[in-house]
Specification:
This protein is an all-alpha fold. 79% of the residues lie in helices and 0% in strands. It contains 6 helices and no strands. Helix 2 packs across helix 3 and helix 4 packs across helix 5.
């Protein structure tokens, strides 16, 4: 989560696109992002399944699919609205959020 969000927020091309044509870029990253979100959710589902197999958590495919979809959408939202809650502007804030909120959901 921290690496992904930091990488996306610092991505030079993405920042330039947002500066040059913010409306079109935001539209593409929101309304037109269904396939990207699906791909991200599928990747996350595989990782969550691996984590839960090791930790003894539920490996129910429907539960993992729902969680991975929510996490993909959460990351998208935090990328597009970085100044909204929860506070994740610094590495420390992102780490706290991940440990306090995301890790318990994933395990």
């Amino acid at each position: 989560f921290i690496v992904t969000l930091t990488t996306l927020r610092r991505n030079r091309l993405l920042r330039q696109l947002l500066e040059v044509d913010q409306d079109e870029t935001v539209r593409a990253l929101s309304i037109g992002a269904g396939r990207v979100l699906d791909l991200a959710a599928q990747y996350l589902a595989g990782r969550i399944h691996q984590i839960r197999e090791r930790s003894g958590g539920s490996t129910d495919p429907a539960e993992i699919a729902a969680l991975s979809g929510v996490l993909a959408r959460l990351t998208q939202s935090m990328l597009l609205t970085p100044d909204g809650p929860p506070a994740t502007a610094t590495d420390a804030e992102m780490r706290w959020f991940a440990e306090a909120v995301l890790v318990p959901m994933i395990r």
